[in-house]
Amino acid sequence: MKPDERDKAKYKVRSELAIKLITSHPEYLPLIKDKYRTDDILEEALQLEPDVFRYIKNPSDKLIEVALDLDGSNIRFLSKHKIRELPEAVLITALNSYDEAISYVDCSELSELTRVKIFLNDPITALENGIEVPESCVITAVTQTPSMIRYIPHASEDIKCAALSLEPNVALYFDKLTDRM
Fold it and tell me: pTM here?
């Protein structure tokens, strides 16, 4: 074996050992040499054990995306600044797999399209977290699930009428009924 080939073989073996160590004892991650903490090695470790993410200091955007794709709860380990910089598609992926992720996101900074996507994915969680969406989306959701009206603070008369037309018992959630209802 040539010296260059020997070095490559050593690196490969040590990389595999680093991955095994990272996945079995992620708390040892800071002790692993930098040359064995590359994005590729860390990504492979994440694929095997997504919980490793909590031990990665200053993860790259690529690692953040992989970690959130594998387990949305990894959003807990990001700074508010990093969360604000996430592409909205990555946020939606995290929200799809971890309902509590919404509590880490400043929803007022999300585009209307993203708020609508979040709402359509889980309307009740969106409404409970104050995500504002166009009234047409709310009416569509209420026509699919009339009892959802109870989660809508200050529902317009149109929304209430849409819910009532499908399920009269939702009137129990209203403070008062108008002539139109």
Answer: 0.69
